[in-house]
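Hello Y.,

Per our agreement to keep a running log of every chain we model this quarter, I'm adding this entry. I've kept the format consistent with earlier entries: sequence first, then predicted structure.
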Amino acid sequence: MCHQVYRGNAFTFDFFFTAVYSVAGRFARLFASDTKPVMEDGKAFIPLQPEGIEIEILKHSSSAFCRVLEGKFGCTAQIHNVEDHTASSFSHSKATTVSDIKYSKQLSNSLKVSVWKDDLTTHKVDAVVNAANERLSHGAGLALALSQAGGRMIQQWSNEIIKQKGKVPTGEVVATPAGNLPCKMIIHAVGPCVSLKATKTELRVASDLLEKTIWRILQKANFENMQSVAIPAISSGLYNFPLQKCADIIVATVKSFSDERNPGARSLEVRLVNNDDPSVQQMHRACREILGPSDLMPMQNQGNAPTQSPVSSVDLGNVTLHLKKGAIENETTDVIVNTIGANLDLSKGQVSAALLKKAGRKIQDEIKRLTRGHVHEGDVIPTAGYNLNCKAVYHTVCVPKRTTDDMANKVGFLIYNQLSILEVYIK
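Predicted structure for the entry above:
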């Protein structure tokens, strides 16, 4: 990668989504201030006038703005005389579904595991796993939900498989196209079914079959070159398999698969996705016990982490914004964004200092070499990640402190700059 300093005015800013949080925060602070409300029908209304860059944000993402304001700050927004250019795309989707990531762990250079609370019919991955029966008759539970969301062709494709190959044995998987689902493929996995009062022998046999089922899922995702696969708590619902034991087997099997996988294999993220709290909690517990603390936050906070924001993930069409609490220097990602003063000294500021400590002195040396001490407000200086778990670090030359409103505009401007440079980096 060839690094250069990007000037703050060098790009056309096409991304308006991420700055929504900054603008929503400004409006929420005004709402909580001493501004006198207008009372109508027992409700308090505070008229707020957007300014400058905020008008452009609302034009491109007012639907997202309203959802964030409601979810994060508890305020309801009514926007007048501003046309939302993306309203039609949001109104015909389930973008209001909130994806909540609870756990994330990089097991190897090529395999990552995460725990999510989300609706599998709207979860965006390459492959979604369906808890199927041996006849691929999708008449109840998750199978019915996926079949209804994906369209009648899901059942038709499944019927064709049964017609050609017969029933799918327990522990095996087959795949069909995803229809209308936001993924490339559905992996139909037939997990074991046990009686309500299963004996130890029955559970032992079923446990072996569940492990085989998860292994087959991972093999199929690997064979099809999928980069992400969403797996529910297979067999734990209608099939009566004990939930806690189910979670332990799934997580342990993912770990074993990671240990035996070719280190040079394509990157794969295994997402354990359920929309009910008991399943999410058990998957989270099993991951902590078997895999260790999450990468999402510092280790010392794992035991009694504070409650997270009501909106930890927001789907904004072609961009998904995740809110995570943790040490940014430990994050595994493509790009880490940092702010830096005009003096270009990484030892100043908590985030910069943390990045410098982990990356090493070479990152500071590269900044000096690239800039030769000449920078402007809003410039972005891309460097290598060095000892960080990222490909690059984007250092934004931060503006001096100003009024709150002026800062909101400046922060939005800088975010656009970062996203535009990231688009160039990806291309």
